[in-house]
TrEMBL record:
The chain crosses the membrane at residues 105-125, 145-169, 176-194, 200-220, 232-254, 266-285, 305-327, 347-368, 380-399, 405-426, 438-457, 477-496. The keyword Amino-acid biosynthesis does not apply. Keywords: Cell membrane, Membrane, Transmembrane, Transmembrane helix. One of its GO terms (cellular component) is plasma membrane. Gene3D superfamilies: MFS general substrate transporter like domains. SUPFAM superfamilies: MFS general substrate transporter (SSF103473). It is found in: Cell membrane. Residues 1-20, 30-100 are annotated as: Disordered. This is MFS transporter. It is a multi-pass membrane protein. It comes from Histidinibacterium lentulum. The keyword tRNA processing does not apply.
Length: 512
């Protein structure tokens, strides 16, 4: 038996006196154990430095212990091995007992900037044909179906790449995936800039889709990795707001740029910017340690497809985003020119208004969603209101309620991305290491619907054909927009009649 601490016979080395904080903790712990007998619990025992009792009993080295030659805040292999999320990454504050590591505000700003830049290019290339389509149609003599196929190839390649991107995101992390996306985007922009046939343009457009169409999933993964769980909606909104500036750049600012350079030189500039962003992501964006996988990709997708809430969310979220992308990315310009009779400068102003309203909507809707869900309001209530506003704006175009008014474009822009609020309802049901694959199951349907609606819109217009002035008749646009309205109305009815959707009261509530 060891003698009591701090006492002993002469010549016997005394044990070091126990720190006061340890004595206090042990005394309080013994009292609590006497007052509260052990109860069976299904909750796993906290591991690593989140378990103060194991620290105080000496089983794990506490941060900053000097008897092992460890400086406070210095890497400790034993401590890092016991962390549930591995060693700390650059930019993370050192974790203390009872606290989880949180990234600094500067690192969060860098994350938003880096991933928002990828989504900026995604939105720019997605909507650039809304301004360039008259020039491309005139130069290559394309009809509505052909220009619709050329533009929608972006979404087709996006539907193909989004699941592989999601698997890579969960395995290697968002930083490395983002670098590869920038490099592919640069190659696609270079091919589009130098293409001399419609086939070459189609190839370049498809590569652009492979490069940047998955940037939304990459951005959402970056948010789930770096932001606290209760701020995922806000983080998504910040990234979407930065990315939506690409939609703004693809409207009137692009028209102004075309007065100085040709459309081919625009894509050369974009290729150089993509290369520069790849370098920025490589040298400035720190990497976060990836968690080991516990489920095969097929297992994750089987789990997603087995969720009732997925089948209620997917049609409305995917169709609303697809209809908005189809109109904003191509057919808004054609409708305003053929039906409303507006000039290109007037069209550019309305496209700019829609993009600006979309940017505000992304930022406001995400923050408002966090506030409302904190008060117990289901996210489905806000999503339903946004879907109704989007349908109203499209109905105003279909029935020519106000052909030259500004408000339908502002309303459509504000509510166009309301479906993005549905992504956290799916991703929060999965561990962090599987969240990208969970979100990609919804994203792939959105890209597939976007391709079908944008391509099909042009096919419907060609059923009527052009009039002698080269414009499509208003009846053709009414039929195409009416088809979009019918599909979305059916999906909205399916959405609002679901108990699974309305039972989702919070984004951060962990469900089985």
């Amino acid at each position: 038996m060891f003698p009591p601490r701090g006492s002993g016979r002469a010549g016997t080395p005394l044990l070091p006196a126990e720190p006061a904080v340890v004595r206090t903790f042990r005394s309080e712990h013994r009292i609590q154990r006497q007052l509260k007998p052990d109860r069976p619990s299904n909750r796993p025992e906290p591991q690593g430095i989140d378990n103060p009792q194991r620290y105080m009993s000496g089983l794990i080295a506490m941060p900053g212990r000097t008897d092992r030659g460890i400086r406070r805040g210095a890497p400790d292999p034993q401590r890092d091995r016991d962390r549930p999320d591995g060693p700390p990454s650059p930019g993370l504050r050192p974790r203390r007992p009872g606290m989880s590591a949180r990234p600094t505000s500067g690192l969060l700003a860098l994350v938003v900037l880096a991933f928002g830049s990828g989504y900026f290019l995604s939105y720019f290339f997605r909507n650039v044909n809304a301004v360039l389509s008259p020039l491309i149609v005139a130069q290559f003599e394309l009809n509505a179906t052909q220009i619709g196929l050329l533009t929608s190839a972006f979404f087709l390649s996006g539907a193909i790449i989004v699941i592989p991107v999601a698997i890579l995101l969960d395995r290697v992390g968002p930083r490395r995936v983002l670098i590869g996306q920038f490099l592919i985007t640069s190659a696609g922009a270079a091919i589009f800039a130098t293409g001399t046939t419609a086939t070459a343009l189609l190839l370049g457009r498809a590569l652009l889709g492979l490069g940047v169409a998955g940037c939304l999933a990459t951005a959402f993964k970056g948010v789930t990795v770096w932001f606290p769980r209760d701020r995922w909606a806000t983080g998504n909104a910040l990234v979407l707001a930065v990315g939506s500036l690409g939609a703004i750049a693809g409207t009137q600012p692009l028209q102004w740029l075309l007065t100085l350079v040709t459309w081919r030189e625009v894509f050369v500039i974009c290729a150089c910017v993509s290369l520069a962003m790849a370098a920025v992501a490589h040298f400035l964006l720190p990497d976060r340690n990836a968690e080991p996988e516990t489920a095969a990709p097929r297992g994750v997708y089987r789990h997603v497809l087995a969720l009732p809430v997925f089948w209620r969310l997917m049609p409305m979220v995917s169709l609303s985003l697809a209809a908005f992308f189809a109109i904003q990315g191509l057919w808004a310009n054609a409708w305003m020119s053929d039906v409303a009779g507006l000039s290109q400068s007037q069209i550019g102003g309305r496209l700019l208004l829609m993009a600006g309203a979309m940017s505000c909507g992304m930022l406001i809707n995400g923050t408002l969603a966090d506030r409302l869900t904190g008060l117990g309001v289901p996210p489905a209530a806000m999503m339903t209101t946004g879907f109704a506003g989007l349908l109203l704006a499209q109905a105003a175009l279909a029935f020519e309620l106000a052909p030259q008014a500004w408000w339908p474009w502002a309303l459509m822009g504000y509510a166009g991305n309301i479906g993005a609020l549905g992504y956290p309802l799916i991703s929060r049901r999965f561990p962090l290491r599987e969240s990208a694959r969970a979100m990609s199951a919804v994203a792939v349907m959105g890209f597939a619907f976007s391709f079908a609606l944008q391509f099909g819109f042009g096919g419907i217009l060609d059923l009527w054909g052009r009039d002698p002035s080269g414009a499509y008749p208003a009846e053709a646009y009414r039929a195409a927009l009416g088809t979009l309205l019918a599909l979305q109305s059916a999906a909205l009815l399916w959405f609002v009649t679901s108990r699974d959707v309305w039972g989702e009261a919070r984004y951060d509530r962990v469900l089985p």
